Amino acid sequence: MKVVLGVAGGIAAYKACELLRRLRDDGHDVTVVPTEAALTFVGRATWEALSGRPVSTEVWTDAYEVPHVRLGREADLVLVAPATADLLARAASGRADDLLTNVLLTATCPVVLAPAMHTEMWLHAATRANVATLRSRGTVVVDPAVGRLTGADSGPGRLPEPAEILAVARTVLAAPDLVPALAAQDLAGLRVAVSVGGTREHLDPVRFLGNSSSGRMGWALARAARLRGASVHAVVAHTEVDGPSGIEVERVGSTAELGAAMRRASRDADVVVMAAAPADFTPATASDVKIKKTGDAGTTLTLVQTPDVLRSLVEAREDPRQVVVGFAAETAADQAALVELGRGKLARKGCDLLVLNAVGRDLVFGSPDNEITLLACDGGATTVDGPYAGTKDVLAHRILDAAVAAPRRG
């Protein structure tokens, strides 16, 4: 697809070089449109070498091609990273004083802005008003990360890492129908508690029972909820990848720890998503020292079941308006058998929505893609939606849509 990568004049412009490389690795045709100030931080030759295309900041270059109109009309996505306070102000007021602002005015495709600036500038009433204006017009504005800024400063205003911005770009390119929800921050005011990753049950100080969960689906749900304006608390077990910025993270190890943390997090949550993969069994006793080999005889383990975290969350629910979403990873011969297994689990667990995965070798765990079936409870009956296939980031939004619309039990 055709992507216009706009780069405004901030120190975080160096991160856009990595973002550009990742976009090209995805196979996209990328044209870089920097502001004149951006070239102070990263030179024209760098952008041209990385993109394989000429770079200009002015509407007069190659005027016969009318680039200030053509680029916006032909693009599938306009992505600006970093978007400075000045760029946000010019875009909100409809200025067209360089090539990038002209592209923003003529773009008929989704527009994503990733702001980066000092904390005082991000929190200033003028910037907040500009962001609100842009969002009201359908522009997706990604909240900046919290962290180290220029010099010794630290706070909200840091440009998210390239991988995070890329995840948003991939979602918008794959599912442009989500843009209105992202721009409108349709989950603003909601509190979402989500569990992430796989738990570990220790046999001794160096060995444990675990599973193949990478945490990608849980992180995708946290990212999607945050992108749409929700306040997110993530209870995180073992994961293979890092999570998004802007969310509250609580680390746990075992299934018992996960259950206790999720019960605390769910007390004031509007939506509770049990996306983690808790271990079903734990050793009856754990050794305080490493278990030694004794010849070739092997060893015997006595395992007991771990607490049913999902069921405990349903039982602890005090607000009947709270939505509890569960996940089920099942091996089944076909879709009909998978749904039958899911119906049984939905009835046993008592949650409002069940996300059903078919698992097996090279399926679901660790993959950036997934296929899901959504089972919703409606007065004891069950409706089936899907299966849906796609990236976990896109599917996360589909799950949140279903959660908000899900009928409640009782």
Automatic annotation (TrEMBL):
EC number assigned by the record:
4.1.1.36, 6.3.2.5
Please share the entry's free-text remark on the cofactor.
Answer: Binds 1 FMN per subunit.
Pathway where it operates: Cofactor biosynthesis; coenzyme A biosynthesis; CoA from (R)-pantothenate: step 3/5; Cofactor biosynthesis; coenzyme A biosynthesis; CoA from (R)-pantothenate: step 2/5
Q: Entry's InterPro entries?
A: CoaB-like_sf, CoaBC, DNA/pantothenate-metab_flavo_C, Flavin_trans-like, Flavoprotein
User: What does the record list as coiled-coil region(s)?
Assistant: none
Q: Where is this region: Phosphopantothenoylcysteine decarboxylase?
A: 1-191
Q: Where is this region: Phosphopantothenate--cysteine ligase?
A: 192-410
Tell me the GO BP annotations in alphabetical order: coenzyme A biosynthetic process; pantothenate catabolic process
Amino-acid positions noted as binding CTP in the UniProt annotation, renumbered to this chain: D280, K290, P307, D308, V309, L310, F327, K345, K349
Mind listing the GO molecular function terms for this protein? FMN binding; metal ion binding; phosphopantothenate--cysteine ligase activity; phosphopantothenoylcysteine decarboxylase activity
Its keywords, alphabetically, are: Decarboxylase, Flavoprotein, FMN, Ligase, Lyase, Magnesium, Metal-binding, Multifunctional enzyme
DNA/pantothenate metabolism flavoprotein C-terminal domain location is 187-403
Please indicate which superkingdom the organism of origin belongs to.
Bacteria
What the entry lists under SUPFAM superfamilies is as follows: CoaB-like, Homo-oligomeric flavin-containing Cys decarboxylases, HFCD
Q: Write out the GO cellular component annotations.
A: phosphopantothenoylcysteine decarboxylase complex
The residues covered by the Flavoprotein domain are 1-166
**Stored Gene3D superfamilies:** CoaB-like, Flavin prenyltransferase-like
Which cofactors is this protein said to need? Mg(2+); FMN
Q: Name one Pfam family in it.
A: DFP
Reactions this protein catalyses: N-[(R)-4-phosphopantothenoyl]-L-cysteine + H(+) = (R)-4'-phosphopantetheine + CO2; (R)-4'-phosphopantothenate + L-cysteine + CTP = N-[(R)-4-phosphopantothenoyl]-L-cysteine + CMP + diphosphate + H(+)
PANTHER family the UniProt entry points to: HOMO-OLIGOMERIC FLAVIN CONTAINING CYS DECARBOXYLASE FAMILY, PHOSPHOPANTOTHENOYLCYSTEINE DECARBOXYLASE
What the record says about family reads: In the N-terminal section; belongs to the HFCD (homo-oligomeric flavin containing Cys decarboxylase) superfamily. In the C-terminal section; belongs to the PPC synthetase family.
* General function of this protein: Catalyzes two steps in the biosynthesis of coenzyme A. In the first step cysteine is conjugated to 4'-phosphopantothenate to form 4-phosphopantothenoylcysteine, in the latter compound is decarboxylated to form 4'-phosphopantotheine.
Protein name, as recorded = Coenzyme A biosynthesis bifunctional protein CoaBC
- Which organism is the protein's source? Microlunatus antarcticus
